[in-house]
């Protein structure tokens, strides 16, 4: 198995772990699933770095391991501990079956789109590229369909993982500073969203996003 083939195979695992995040009813299992996905993403960076002789991607892998596999899930787990079982009973706006159908459609559309790509860096990793693009829509689906605010945070995390992978696939020689900027933005965004979610819980006693649809003066 070549490194490029390994990248595409690991890309398939990203879809599996994304569905684990989307379908998890509680924040803790979703956090562990996200950590697992991020670890798969790290392995993809390593495989892609070996395939393209890109030392930058090895640095990306190390940074992603610290921020995505360790720090971000730890922040969400700490938030989940602070709010207890709040939000666990909030059913998503659509059924799990419909969620699976939407994800399948999103992946299918992205596979069709990348067939027209002719960039040299993308020729051998088109399946992984399609999956990386699909993650933007999977994350958006998670944000739109979930009522639990913490689960909506995971939607953002899925979108960020997808954009991170897209950048690695299309520009494997990009400077480490670019990756640091991406990782830093995501890190602080998750912290801010976690603080906001906790403040919402303290104020309303709930994590239901539907209770925030109206401003009350």
From TrEMBL:
GO terms for cellular component: plasma membrane. NCBIfam families: PRK11492.1. Coiled coil: none annotated. It comes from Berryella wangjianweii. Gene3D superfamilies: 1.10.287.3510. Pfam families: Oxidored_q2. The keyword Transmembrane helix applies. This is Hydrogenase 4 membrane subunit. PANTHER family: HYDROGENASE-4 COMPONENT E. Keywords: Cell membrane, Membrane, Transmembrane, Transmembrane helix. It is found in: Cell membrane. It is a multi-pass membrane protein.
């Amino acid at each position: 198995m070549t490194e490029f083939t390994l990248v595409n195979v690991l890309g398939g695992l990203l879809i599996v772990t994304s569905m684990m995040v989307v379908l998890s009813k509680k924040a803790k299992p979703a956090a562990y699933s996200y950590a697992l996905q991020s670890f798969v993403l790290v392995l993809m960076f390593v495989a892609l770095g070996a395939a393209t002789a890109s030392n930058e991607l090895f640095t990306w892998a190390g940074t992603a391991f610290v921020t995505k596999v360790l720090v971000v899930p730890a922040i969400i787990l700490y938030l989940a501990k602070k709010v207890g079982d709040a939000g666990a009973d909030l059913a998503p706006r659509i059924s799990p079956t419909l969620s699976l159908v939407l994800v399948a459609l999103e992946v299918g559309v992205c596979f069709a789109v990348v067939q027209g790509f002719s960039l040299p860096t993308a020729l051998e990793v088109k399946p992984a590229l399609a999956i990386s693009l699909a993650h933007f829509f999977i994350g958006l689906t998670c944000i739109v369909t979930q009522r639990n605010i913490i689960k909506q945070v995971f939607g953002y995390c899925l979108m960020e993982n997808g954009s991170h992978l897209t950048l690695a696939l299309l520009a494997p020689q990009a400077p480490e500073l670019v990756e640091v900027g991406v990782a830093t933005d995501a890190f602080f965004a998750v912290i801010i969203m976690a603080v906001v979610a906790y403040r919402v819980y303290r104020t309303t006693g709930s994590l239901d996003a539907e209770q925030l649809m109206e401003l009350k003066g």
